[in-house]
Write a structure and sequence with these properties.
Layout lengths: L4 H8 L4 H71 L8 E7 L2 E7 L1 H9 L2 E6 L2 E6 H10 L4 E3 L25
Antiparallel strand pairs: 1-2, 3-4, 3-5
């Protein structure tokens, strides 16, 4: 049993010594080529695995960045919401209408005469809160503007000094006409 098939065929006279040596050489060459192919396949698999890991890491970094941005946006929105809830003025159902622009639409809220005057002078501001509008002090509006400028709908600012070359400086123009 220790004899290989080649040795057994040689003893039986089916093959000669040269044919046996050629067969062994071809078998060893095939084995070497097979081993080389395995090594190359392993290298290709390793390269593919490294590339897949790099792509996964890049996707994970991008996803983490998006999640972080979303968390920051939610935190800013929560801060703005808290500022509005804590500082909004009560609306007593005033009888005087105050018109303001929200985007391309003109909106109207009813306020008291005192609130109307403060809105016109820039001491108060109007912000969008959920589906409604709220009135807040201008100091709070400036804080909100630093965080989320799109929440501020109307904030009248007063000009303290006019230019020296303004030809209409002597004429006072009212900014809150009442019809």
């Amino acid at each position: 049993m220790a004899n290989s098939f080649g040795d057994q065929f040689l003893k039986a006279g089916l093959v000669n010594k040269t044919r046996l040596n050629e067969a062994e050489k071809s078998k060893s060459k095939q084995q070497k080529q097979k081993n080389k192919q395995k090594i190359e396949v392993v290298d290709e698999a390793a390269v593919a695995a490294k590339q897949a890991a790099a792509e996964k890491a890049a996707r994970d970094r991008e996803l983490n960045r998006q999640q972080k941005d979303e968390a920051e946006r939610k935190a800013v929105h929560a801060q703005v919401r808290l500022l509005i809830e804590l500082n909004r003025l009560p609306r007593d159902g005033g009888k005087l209408g105050y018109n303001f622009q929200d985007g391309t639409a003109i909106k109207k809220i009813f306020v008291s005469e005192e609130v109307h005057d403060k809105l016109a002078r820039g001491l108060l501001a109007i912000v969008r809160f959920d589906a409604a509008y709220e009135i807040i002090p201008s100091v709070v509006a400036e804080k909100i503007m630093l965080r989320e400028a799109s929440a501020i709908v109307s904030h009248a600012t007063t000009q303290l000094e006019a230019g020296d070359d303004d030809p209409y400086a002597d004429y006072k123009v009212p900014d809150d006409l009442m019809w």
